[in-house]
Every structure is written in structure tokens, then in C-alpha cells.
Amino acid sequence: MEESNCLPDSVTYNELVAAYVRAGFLEEGAAVIGTMTHGDNAKCCHVHYDAYGKAGNVDKALSLFNQMKGSGCVPNVCTYNAILGMLGKKSRSEEMMLFLHDMKSNGCAPNRVTRNTMLAMCGNSGMQRYVNRVFREMKSCGFEPDRDTFNTLISTYGRCGSGTESAKMHEEMTKAGFTP
């Protein structure tokens, strides 16, 4: 392709990385990401992070994330959401909070998916203090809870032994017009 003076763009990279990942060739996909130039879309990397996460290799995914940033690619909200979800599934809540901070400090605004991911992952780890913090931040940024938010909070508070808080969320959920 390059020999024909047709340089790859972010769509080309995305498709190539996705094909390698689907075929289980993670190292080959990582090699492609290593050839990306400054300004290439970070989107293709989150496919790779997800694959490493599913394979249980979180540290390799984090290394890839740092490699991507080092090459000048700017992580987008999908990239951060993939990393946050992967860390949460491995109960690495402290690192999740650091990545959330990194996300914000790099000018990438967390969206509803980010917030619900943080709530679910911290909740699954029994980290009620983080759940409360994320929920407060969510509301202060103007995100109203949706059905997923309420269900996550009800489950989290129940898991943490806080039946009162769980009942309070259930009541707020029904007042907001959602059914569990």
C-alpha cells in the first residue's frame, strides 16, 4: 500500500488492528499500532485494549496505552472507557480513579458511559466510597441518573450492606419514572 504512495489513515489502521485482534494475533496488532503516526485516531487502539483485557493481560493493555500516548495519539472517551472497564473487571479501583483523573486533566470529558462504568466497576469491587464520589460528580456535572445508574447503585449499596441507601435509590428510581 505504502509502496503505491497510498498512505494508511486511521480507518485503515482500525480495520487492520481489528482484523488481527479478531484472529487472535494480538502481538501483530500491537506492531501495527507501533507504526501509527502522530495524529492517527486513537479509536483503533481501544479494540486492542479490549482484546488484551478479555485475555486477562491488563498490564500489556496499559503498556499499549502509554505507547499510544507517547506516539502523539490523543486518547478519546472510548479509549478511556475501555481502559476503565478493563481495570474495573480486575478490581483495580485505585488505578481506575487515576485514569479518570488523567482523562479529565487531558481535556477528555467523561460521558454517561464513563460514569456508569465507574459506578459498576467500583460497585462490583465493594468500593462504596468511590461509588458515592463518582455519583456526586456525575450529578454535579449535570448527568441525571438513568436506569443503568439506578440499578447499579441499588445493587452496589445492597452488596455493601447498606440496605437503607439501596431502598433510597429504589425510591428515587421510581420517582424518576424508571422501573427496576
TrEMBL record:
InterPro entries: PPR_rpt, TPR-like_helical_dom_sf. It comes from the Eukaryota. Pfam families: PPR, PPR_2. PPR repeats lie at residues 41-75, 76-110, 111-145, 146-180. Keywords: Repeat. NCBIfam families: PPR (TIGR00756). Belongs to the PPR family. P subfamily. This is Pentatricopeptide repeat-containing protein. It comes from Escallonia herrerae.
